Amino acid sequence: MAYIEIKQVYKSYGENHVLKDINIQILKGQLVTLLGPSGCGKSTLLRCLAGLEEIQEGAIYLDGSEISQIPAGKRKIGMVFQQYSLFPNLTVEQNIGFGLQMQKMNRDLISEKTKKVISLVELEGKEKEYPISLSGGQQQRVALARSIIMEPKVLLLDEPLSAIDAKLRKSLQQKIMEIQKELNLTVVFVTHDQDEAMLLSDVIWLFNQGRIEQSGSPIQIYTRPHTHFAASFIGNYNILEAQEFHAMVGETTSDGKKIGIRPETIQIQRDPVLPAEGEYLLQGKIKGNSPRGNVLRYQIEVKGIRLHADVLFRSFTLFENGANVYVSIPKRDCLELS
Ligand code: ADP
């Protein structure tokens, strides 16, 4: 049974319908991401979960009880934002222990718990420092520790790493995953970054203009997007109109649907080979290439249609511009998109 259930939730700001018919189920101990472009309603849903915003229709359940009407302070849900919002006049350990102090917990117990979470977020040695002397990444660790120490039923993370530089972000992503596994935390993570969502998630809920476009494991979403939006947001799909696909392979798609082809499923060869069963073998011409880290992306023209294909950058046999090549594409990787 779902630990968190969001049922038919709608939310508007005036005429702006920000959330439309949201249905989400999250299991205990899962790390899920709400992924989507800026402005599609992810943070609003997170704030509704936290109780910082009211929903107009629908219901939210946590651990078997409806929480839609329960005030934020009583939901036992922790939240970490992009802005760290630490108390500047309190030290690291005071910031972390603050919530428990408000609950009038015994000092020794607070000190013991603070020590534990400081070790968990690897801030040993920084206990007596003030936020101003910490890096952005360290401040975010304090913010994380401050939430975790309250032993929330759910931890909500709203773009917590967006303000942190790329290299440090990677190590913090790793840290969040480790902590989540170690404490068996249920985490809802908001991001607009597909790579971050792919790395962190047990399940991705992909948002588009206030609706859920698709949900599934990172691999399902990456390899089997159902819609044009999903294929253009995740991966770097070639998206062909039905008539372009027909011009290329001579086949029609059902109801004139578009076709998505993931660039790494396309193989390029210099010499003709017999087409394997279940593959299209097409003649093409190399029109250019661009290195993308460990992958080389080729632009290829096939029957007047431009495709891009990604090849692992390990080969000496680069295809020069203008080279005539053969392109093979597995039929099962030509996905019809709604
Ligand atoms: P995301 O997190 O996906 O970037 P948001 O949930 O922040 O998107 O915003 C979704 C939409 O709701 C946007 O159009 C935004 O302008 C609007 N919105 C968010 N918060 C408020 C608010 N407090 N008052 C009015 N409109 C808001």
Describe what this molecule looks like in 3D.
- This protein is of the alpha+beta class and 338 residues long.
- It folds into two domains: 230 residues, P-loop containing nucleotide triphosphate hydrolases (Rossmann fold), CATH 3.40.50.300; 102 residues, OB fold (Dihydrolipoamide Acetyltransferase, E2P), CATH 2.40.50.
- The chain has nine helices and 18 strands.
- Strand 15 and strand 16 form a beta hairpin.
- Helix 2 crosses helix 3 and helix 3 crosses helix 4.
- The longest helix has 18 residues.
- The chain is elongated and about 75 Å long.
- It binds adenosine-5'-diphosphate (ADP).
- Adenosine-5'-diphosphate binds next to strand 2 and helix 1.
Q: Which molecules other than protein and nucleic acid are bound? A: adenosine-5'-diphosphate
CATH architecture of the largest domain, by name, is 3-Layer(aba) Sandwich
CATH superfamily of the largest domain: P-loop containing nucleotide triphosphate hydrolases
What is the strand content?
A: 25-35%
Structural class: alpha+beta
Largest sheet, spatial ordering of strands: 6-7-8-3-9-10
**How would you spell out the order of helices and strands?**
EEEHEEEHHHEHEHEEHHEHEEEEEEE
Give a short synopsis of this structure.
The protein is of the alpha+beta class and 338 residues long.
Keywords:
338 residues; alpha+beta; Rossmann fold; OB fold (Dihydrolipoamide Acetyltransferase, E2P); 2 domains; six-stranded mixed sheet; elongated; binds adenosine-5'-diphosphate
